[in-house]
Structure prediction request, 316 residues.
Amino acid sequence: MKDKIINSFSNDLKALVDNMIINDKKVFVTLKAENSNQAKEFEKFKEECEKKIRDFNLFDEINVTFTTIKRKFSKVIVVSSCKGGVGKSTLSVNLALSLKKLGKKVGLLDGDIYGPSIPKLLNINKKPDVNDKKKIIPVKQNGIDVMSIGFLIDEKKPLVWRGPMLQSAIMQLINDVEWDFLDYLIIDFPPGTGDTQLTIMQKLKIDHALIVTTPQEIALADTRKGINMFNRFNVPIAGIVENMSYFVCDNCSTKHFLFGENGGEKLAKEFNIKLLGKIPFHSTIAKNCDAGTPELIHNNSDLNKVYLELSESLIN
Ligand SMILES: Nc1ncnc2c1ncn2[C@@H]1O[C@H](COP(=O)(O)OP(=O)(O)O)[C@@H](O)[C@H]1O
Ligand SMILES: [Mg+2]
Prediction:
């Protein structure tokens, strides 16, 4: 279908197509422009694009936007699961910390606009500065450049987004932030498979998705939806990380599989993707995340090793 649509475009328009995503009756197209002035000049191509797609009479929603951001990231990695509470944010932060340890310049974008938890996890209480171009400068914490919608909203008010607000909040996170050049941009991806996720995929070319799950069957069921979404939009999956895999108690030093065993393996086999690692359920992780001191987790040599190995497998 995609090829059919693009073939109907004029050659000039074809040359501008950066990305096209078709999801049921919705089409999302990103066109390339050098800057916002050029995007204005290219308005006629946007109109042509919308008209040509409309002529197919197949879609309820046609969404054509320009991408003007010059890519400042070598690699964009999203940490995703379709379910909340499986440890996405915890993994995002700890992965960022170990990539930093390996000498990489790392940015962390809290894309979970429904429940931004990165500011709390990293104990960031200040608001980001704005530069003279009115761009937001990410907050530096533990040597990582961090941006979260949590910096821009009132923490005490519940987050109730309506469609357009949600869209503009995400666009602000993507377009209005002045990132330094980064080796890795890690995105804590919002749970679900809706328009929010699509917008992020449309706007930021994602190099790899890292799928987090717990071994429980219920988490696996949701995770399958997430894997299918990335497959549908041709986002390569770097692998699966099984979180809360087992618990080692102080007294008997055997592994207790609280949520079942080998859920990650099962999923990896089912989708033919790699199982990159298993993170134990550990009070050091929970305690330090609550305290906003995730860097202390890495003083535990076993946990440090788990996160470093994960980072190394991402780098390779
Ligand atoms: N491996 C782990 N061991 C112990 N606690 C964990 C572990 N991973 C996550 N947690 C805790 O579980 C809760 C949910 O994790 P979080 O990263 O916020 O999940 P998500 O971002 O997927 O909603 C947090 O309180 C966190 O501290
Ligand atoms: Mg989270």
